[in-house]
Amino acid sequence: MTFAATDPTGGAGLQADVVTLASLGCHPVSVTTAITVQDTHGVRSVRALEANWVIEQARAVLDEMPIAAFKLGVLGSVENATALAELVAQHRRTPLVLDPVLTSGRGDVLASEATIEALLEHWLPLTTVLTPNSVEARRLAGASPSAGLDDCAARLIARGAAYVLITGTHEPGAEVVNTLYGPAGARHTHRWQRLVGTYHGSGCTLASAVAAQLALGLPVPDAVHVAQEYTWRTLANGFRPAAGQHIPDRLFWAHQAKDAAIR
């Protein structure tokens, strides 16, 4: 089950989550938290749905369908964040992936300070894997822009997250270094070739891919590794449908199979 805002471009948000989950063999069920107006350049406006509408969507599904994993993106408002946490807390045994989308790729604000505090207070204790980029990790940890990421991860785990996967796309270097932090300071580092261009929805893709692998039964370190491999391939096969950012091709395998069949 994914909780997210819509994206009419299909590049990020709810649409990205649904395609990613389906591509990886899961049946996606979705709860709309907000409606956005955006293009491949950035977000123009966001309208959060009323909390009761969001809760009713989730309850209608939870009352009759088993859920193998939760994935959270933009929640839209502090009211949504608080109300949904109370509902999801009733399913503590279900893995939960939290993608703390604080801004768009262009920097458009997608979470207020009150919503961020609600994420820290109500959601981190429910979170199996938190997937911030380095900028988000420092902000959530209340650290300076130059703070070490090891310390940021330790602070977020101390506040309740079981694992923290910090992605390094915003850090310098020829490679993107993603690091998984877990209990007792366990750490797994993954290095990926840095691709040319900017991508719309890469974070949504990664978080949804982690949720899919957890839903399929993989332990966290394995789920994170497989999800990164999948996400990198969606980016390497990405396309640019307009003048803005590239969009990950979450169905790259289908196109490759088609081409192979034609040959």
Short description:
The protein has 263 residues and is an alpha/beta fold. The chain contains 9 helices and 9 strands.
What's the structural blueprint in terms of helices and strands?
Elements: E1 2-5, H1 13-23, E2 30-38, E3 43-48, H2 51-62, E4 70-72, H3 78-88, E5 96-98, H4 113-123, E6 129-130, H5 134-140, H6 149-158, E7 163-166, E8 175-181, E9 187-193, H7 202-215, H8 220-236, H9 252-262
Parallel strand pairs: 1-2, 1-4, 4-5, 5-6, 6-7
Antiparallel strand pairs: 2-3, 7-8, 8-9
Characterise this structure.
The protein has 263 residues and is α/β, with parallel strands linked by helices. The protein has a single domain, classed as Ribokinase (UDP-N-acetylmuramoyl-L-alanine:D-glutamate ligase, 3-Layer(aba) Sandwich). 40% of the residues lie in helices and 17% in strands. Strands 3-2-1-4-5-6-7-8-9 form a nine-stranded mixed sheet, with helices on both faces. A hairpin with a 5-residue loop joins β8 (175-181) and β9 (187-193). The radius of gyration is 17 Å and the shape is globular. It starts with a strand and ends with a helix.
